[in-house]
Design brief:
The complex is a heterotrimer of chains A (281), B (635) and C (253). Chain B is mostly helical. Chain B has helices at residues 2-8, 20-23, 35-60, 64-73, 75-84, 88-107, 114-138, 150-154, 163-192, 206-224, 228-233, 235-243, 247-272, 276-302, 309-338, 359-369, 392-400, 415-422, 462-479, 484-510, 527-532, 551-564, 578-587, 610-625; strands at 352-356, 373-377, 403-406, 429-430, 518-521, 536-540, 569-572, 591-594. In chain C, helix 5 (168-183) links the parallel strand 6 (156-160) and strand 7. The termini of chain C are far apart. The chains are: A mainly alpha (281), B mainly alpha (635), C alpha/beta (253).
Chain lengths: 281, 635, 253
């Protein structure tokens, strides 16, 4: 019991546990749709795409939070615009978006006379050091994301399953995609602010891959992924505490472990199931 | 627009006028006079050919994420190689191959389609970054601050390309071109099935594809920087994909577009003193946007009579015409305004051109050289040295400098490639040689070490400033014997001032009790200050390796700080991360944003000389730990 | 004409053109289609079948003339891009048909579920409701998608080549289900290449850029009409895919 409680009793233990669990659950749920729509590259890129907003804010002496908001907004609009380019896959348009945005940020920075310092340390959180404001804002944003996910669940499913039938089912493809992008942008912004970019990426893909391997129904998958995300996040606290590894890296490792374990479980389960099907036929 | 804003700031850097193109740009060819510019041209061409040739496959097989991720994927291997003393260039290739092999294993055999490949790449990137961080933590004992960030290990700039990197890129091009010619048809056969676009379905020939993209990416990244992976390997091909339907045409157009983006971006960079990677990426992105608009407009018109080949050519012609008209027009506007700033540098003509890497080094040089030297500072105030990307003027300043002063250690270890690129035969003068050094992870000890892992913030100790000032005097005298008397007098005056300041500060610090002289430090930048004035650093929040603290690390640090009653958390201005803030809040002590790596920028408040910085820092600390009772301003 | 109230689709001299095109893709369509009918649209690829469907779903407004659709439409597209790796059961897929009826915060209730099960039983898959979509055979998957269309419960049902590439057993079930829909009083419009299937319809509309003929199969399916429908390059094969080869040479001006 003490082994379980020791890390929490110490300084920052409880903060770390709460921030990782909350972000883990939120990101896990969003991750299912990131997996189904193939948007992991986008999620990874969004953390860099904030750069122009941040640089411009520091150049004009505005607060970094405003810069980050502007950056998020710009990233959202740019992604939406570039994704409309004809004959361009989602990955290619993401590549164009992030490269252009980061280049824009670097060019703005080059034209200012004071350097831009390590924005990441200013804006990007660290799971061990989330402030109450960060946590509250993150939790609020993720709650909004969760509600949106719940409302959009069936439409996301219909579009991911069969995009060609969307019109007939009266599902607006462009609206659903805009909502999907909004959800991803909000989740990434919340997660990055509370835990930093590496744990955010890991929590967005790892639990979802695990849930995908374990579940044959999307509805259950979202719950399982949220649960797996929370567990991966909480587990990372213990890994960081006992192995003495950085908290962010520990999150990535627990997420990878969860995905790997679930995939192995599925493989063994599947090979037995497959022989069953053959016998049935 | 960025050109205009860049131009408006052009006068700030003292070295801009020395670039050939700025004052009287007769023809673009003049921009290529410096050696580094010619090397950059060659590097851009090689990278463009590799990127353009492979880009078609990358885009049609949905590998952009993989291409972007190779840099991060190679991180753990590079950390290990750095610890083992292996060549980083070889380690990068090796790491890229390992990353490709892992991804292949993860996506092979399963019914994995693009969606799965995408998220698995994401997971692999996260894992690689984590493994690198953990490895850096584990290997931290072996010294050297290499583990700061994955980017700084692999990414370079086209402006600081060395001969060996060019040779490696040429070899990669020689490997890529025949393989692309032979195999791209087979790679794309899978990709063109609309159901399978992006499918990582592995055919026999695909075994070559991922490793080849990995190698190409790993040899382009150190050549041209992080941005270029997308700028040359993805965007041109994505643009070409919109314009053409046949793979041969897409490939040819991708190479052409990559070369055009590369050349035009490099031209903008040289002519307007912009970071090369960002300029090239901006041009590539602009071409993509133009083509997207052109194709959308046309296809809206053509939707019924499915555009036949002639229509496609017309589209292409429209787009490229638009690009050819708009881009030079853009550069034309910039060019004319560029000349207005030409005169700024001329006043410096009879001064000794000197380049210093950091604001502190530049300050000491100015103290000794006075107005007999024209000092160019490479790192802007407040800039993170680990994210430095040189501009052409930086490299040009290095080439023109009669003396190059570096601060030494981890702060400016990125300098060597830039000096090599500048083509100057002079080695930099390492100012840390003249200082008494502390080891990088000494809490408050006084044992000096001359190994790789010394604490590079020697300039926050007045005694070191005096010693280093004498060294600067000697070097300036060597470079400019005629002014030797002035340098000698300035150095003597500087020595006097540093000694006086040291005495005053020591007296001030003595007014604090031993109990009060306990602080917590975010990094190790204030170790020299603490050692000189007998402060105890109760805890350091970031490990010496430069990585992140573990939960246990942090709890130990906070416990130690609490036990010793530390009165303040000190960190560098602009770098106060959330960890430092959280610890300060937790312990209910003030968080002090002091000047560590860098002096204060421009006209604002804050110290502009190293001595002022020391005084400022000590004054703030004294005030904080004594609740305002003790101030150390000498005025 | 006595049951004019029951007419669900009225077209008079309707022409359809895609934006920017010089000539219409389909012109001079005049049709009155009542409920309780199984209508087959027969014609080559590019003949205007999908264009007419787009007009009926409201995606494409007529460039000239009028097209009036008096009831909601559901549409099963030809190219089935449904994913076999998406984690849903046959019942889940069928329930997607009820999506438009419910506000986003209402999950399918008991009535929706029983309707979905009933639709599945109409396509002979009542016992596979809880099977994963990906584990079904190709024909069964097409039947589930038809069930999804059935559950939409629209008076007008459009199906683009529902039998292409489907095993004979499934084709039979689908055919029966379509007749069942017709018997419910719906207007069922099926795009097809299959002349044999057309012979069993209530009405055939032959399209080749315009309406070549329309009426009961006995009247409409004369050799001359077929000749005109499939243009000069007639290689009249019942199998649809060969007609595609014919149409390759057919250019718009």
């Amino acid at each position: 019991m003490d082994a379980l409680l020791d890390p929490i009793r110490g300084d920052f233990g409880l903060t770390t546990l709460i921030s990782l669990t909350v972000v883990g659950a939120g990101c896990g749920a969003v991750g299912v749709w990131i997996l189904q729509f193939g948007r992991a590259f986008l999620a990874e890129s969004l953390t860099h795409a904030l750069l122009p907003g941040l640089v411009a804010a520091s150049l004009f002496g505005a607060s970094l939070v405003i810069g980050a908001l502007a950056g998020v907004l710009l990233a959202y609009v740019a992604t939406l615009a570039f994704s409309r380019a004809p004959k361009t896959s989602a990955a290619a348009s993401t590549s164009v978006t992030v490269t252009t945005l980061v280049a824009g940020g670097a060019l703005i920075a080059a034209s200012s006379d004071s350097g831009y310092a390590a924005f990441e340390s200013l804006l990007f959180g660290n799971p061990v050091a989330a402030t109450r404001v960060d946590l509250a804002a993150g939790a609020l944003l993720l709650a909004g994301v969760t509600v949106t996910l719940w409302l959009a669940h069936e439409r996301f499913g219909a579009l991911a399953f069969d995009p060609a039938a969307a019109v007939s089912l009266r599902v607006s493809v462009s609206r659903v995609q805009a909502v999907l992008l909004l959800v991803i942008v909000c989740a990434v912004a919340a997660a990055v602010n509370v835990t930093g970019s590496l744990p955010a990426l890991a929590l967005l893909v790892g639990p979802a891959i695990a849930a995908d391997a374990l579940c044959t129904r999307i509805g259950r998958g979202v719950w399982i992924a949220a649960l797996a995300g929370a567990i991966c996040g909480a587990g990372a606290l213990y890994l960081s505490y006992y192995a003495d590894w950085p908290a962010g890296a520990s999150v990535a490792i627990t997420c990878t472990a969860a995905a790997a374990a679930a995939s192995c479980l599925r493989r063994t389960h599947r090979s037995s199931a497959r022989t069953g099907v053959v016998a049935q036929r | 627009m960025f050109v205009v804003s860049a131009i408006s700031h052009l006068g700030i850097s003292g070295a801009t006028s020395r670039l050939p193109g700025f004052a009287t740009l007769e023809s673009p060819a003049e921009l290529l006079d410096p050696l580094f510019a010619r090397r950059a041209l060659l590097a851009v061409l090689l990278a463009a050919v590799i990127g353009g040739a492979l880009g078609t496959t990358i885009v049609l097989r949905d590998l952009p994420f993989f291409t972007h991720a190779v840099g991060a994927g190679a991180y753990p291997t590079m950390v290990a190689a750095a610890a083992l003393g292996m060549s980083l260039a070889i380690a990068a290739q090796l790491g890229a191959l390992v990353f490709a092999a892992l991804l292949w294993l993860l996506t092979r055999g399963s019914t994995a389609d693009a969606r799965q490949g995408d998220s698995r790449t994401g997971l692999l990137v996260a894992t690689a970054l984590a493994a690198g961080a953990v490895l850096a933590e584990v290997l931290a004992g072996s010294g050297s601050g290499f583990a700061r960030s994955p980017e700084s290990m692999l990414f370079g700039s086209v402006l600081t390309v060395g001969k060996s990197e060019l040779v490696a890129a040429a070899a990669t091009a020689a490997l890529c071109l025949p393989l692309v010619t032979l195999l791209s048809g087979r790679w794309l056969a899978v990709g063109f099935d609309p159901e399978a676009v992006g499918a990582m379905r592995i055919s026999r020939y695909d075994g070559v594809l991922l490793p080849l993209v990995a190698i190409a990416s790993a040899s382009i990244l150190p050549l041209t920087g992080a941005l270029m992976a997308g700028a040359l390997m993805v965007i041109p091909a994505a643009t070409a994909r919109m314009l053409f339907d046949r793979t041969a045409m897409i490939t040819a157009a991708a190479v052409a577009l990559a070369v055009v983006s590369g050349l035009f971006g490099l031209y903008l960079s040289l002519a307007f003193d912009l970071p090369a990677g960002a300029s090239i990426a901006a041009v590539a992105g602009g071409l993509f946007a133009l083509a997207a608009i052109a194709v959308s407009v046309r296809s809206r018109a053509d939707r019924i009579s499915r555009p036949n080949r002639r229509d496609n050519h017309r589209t292409m012609a429209t787009a490229s015409l638009a690009a050819l008209v708009v881009l030079p027009a853009l550069s034309g506007c910039g060019g004319s305004s560029g000349q207005t700033t030409a005169a700024t540098g001329d006043a410096n003509n009879d001064r000794v051109p000197v380049t210093a890497t950091t604001t502190h080094a530049a300050d000491i040089v100015r103290q000794i050289g006075g107005n007999h030297v024209a000092t160019t500072t490479m790192l802007k105030p407040g800039a993170d040295p680990h994210e430095f990307e040189p501009k052409p003027s930086d490299v040009a300043a290095l080439a023109d400098a009669r003396v190059i002063f570096r601060s030494g250690g981890a702060i400016d270890s990125w300098l060597q490639p830039a000096i090599d690129a500048a083509g100057g035969g002079r080695g930099p003068i390492d100012l840390s040689d003249a200082a008494v050094l502390l080891p990088s992870d000494a809490a408050a000890g006084d044992s000096a070490s001359n190994g790789e892992s010394f604490n590079a913030h020697w300039f926050l100790d007045p005694v070191n400033l005096e010693a280093v000032g004498k060294r600067v005097r000697d070097e300036l005298t060597k470079a400019d014997p005629a002014t030797r008397e002035t340098y000698r007098a300035n150095a003597a005056r500087y020595a006097q001032r540093t000694r006086a300041a040291d005495t005053a500060l020591a007296r001030c610090a003595k007014r604090l009790s031993a109990k009060q002289r306990v602080i917590i430090s975010d990094h190790n930048e204030f170790d020299y200050l603490a050692a000189r004035y007998e402060f105890k650093v109760a805890a350091r929040l970031q490990p010496a390796s430069g990585g992140e603290p573990s939960v246990a690390d942090l709890q130990r640090a906070v416990a130690a700080a609490r036990a010793s009653g530390a009165g303040a958390v000190v960190t560098s201005a602009g770098e106060s991360g959330k960890v430092a803030r959280a610890v300060a809040n937790r312990l209910r002590v003030p968080l002090l944003e002091l000047y560590g790596d860098s002096l204060a920028p421009g006209d604002g408040g804050g110290p502009h000389t190293s001595l002022d910085a020391i005084e400022f820092n000590l004054d703030r600390i004294a005030a904080a730990v004594s609740s305002g009772a003790v101030r150390c301003k000498t005025g | 004409m006595q049951d004019r109230l029951n007419v669900l689709v009225t077209a008079s001299d309707a022409s359809f053109a895609y934006p920017g095109a010089t000539s219409p893709a389909l012109r001079d369509v005049s049709l009155d289609l009542p409920g309780s009918e199984l209508v087959i649209l027969l014609g080559p690829n590019g003949g205007g079948k999908t264009t007419l469907f787009r007009g009926l779903t409201g995606e494409l407004a007529p460039a000239a003339g009028t097209l009036k659709v008096h009831a909601p439409v559901s549409y099963l597209p030809q190219h089935d891009r449904s994913r076999t790796d998406f984690p849903v059961s046959a019942l889940d897929v069928t329930l997607m048909g009820t999506l438009a009826e419910r506000p986003p915060w209402r999950r399918p209730g008991r009535t929706e579920r029983s309707r979905a099960r009933e639709a599945l039983s109409r396509v002979g898959l009542a016992d596979r409701a809880d099977t994963s979509f990906g584990e079904l055979s190709g024909g069964q998957r097409r039947r589930v998608l038809l069930a999804r269309t059935i559950v939409q419960d629209s008076p007008i049902v459009l199906l683009d080549e529902p039998l292409a590439g489907v095993d004979p057993a499934s084709a039979e079930v689908i055919d029966a289900a379509l007749r069942g829909l017709r018997d419910d009083g719906r207007l069922v419009i099926v795009a097809s290449h299959d002349i044999e299937q057309a012979r069993r319809a209530d009405r055939v509309v032959c399209l080749n850029g315009r309406v070549v003929a329309a009426g009961p199969p006995g009247d409409a399916l004369s050799p001359s009409v077929l000749q005109e429908t499939y243009a000069a390059e007639l290689t009249l094969l019942p199998a649809g895919d060969d007609a595609v080869g014919v149409i390759e040479h057919h250019h718009h001006h």
